[in-house]
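Troubleshooting log. The previous structure file for this entry was overwritten by mistake, so regenerating from the original sequence record. Sequence copied from the archived sheet and checked twice against the printout by T.R.
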Amino acid sequence: MMETSVWSYLAVLRKRLWLILLLFAVTMVVILVRAWRTPPAYASSTVLQVMPLESEEVTLFARQNTVSPADATAQVIFQFTNVVRSTGIAQRTLSETGIRMTARQLLDGLAVERDPAGDIITVSATAGTPEEAEQILVKQVELALQQYRESRARPAVAAGRFLEAELDTAERELENARAELLRFKLDTGFEYLDRVYVVVEAGSE
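Regenerated output below.
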């Protein structure tokens, strides 16, 4: 009975062999056509190490929350990934490199992967030629790092400007006080106000 069923299957396969071969041929033709029409893609990648620094911000009237190194690293990677995959950075990269593609196409070929075991991230860019892939990668990472550093430095810059303004105000107040002191000396006739001696006469009882 088993041999009969096997021979039956073989007979069906032999009868439909032309259909199986036709489907196989059509599938191979479709794969070859798609491979021929799809332009070649080249990838370039670079490795970055995340080194979070201690926060230099000083908060007033509030205690600063402590963040673990792992959380700080995860936050840096999250923020940098958003920056490097932003449309604005992609448009600047295409503008400065002169590569002809859209920002959407650039971002579709851009990948950021984090090593689960550490603080290493890999940024990869894909393009039609090896030269374009390398140019996109280098410029995209360079612009992203520049914007990320600027965004991180904004609180320190604002604090520096505030201190400079306060210092200018204190210097003006000091100059006004000196001018008032000089005017007082001239009006009262005291040449050396800081050397006024008080003479106390002792009376007899």
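The radius of gyration is 38 Å. Archived copy saved in two places this time.
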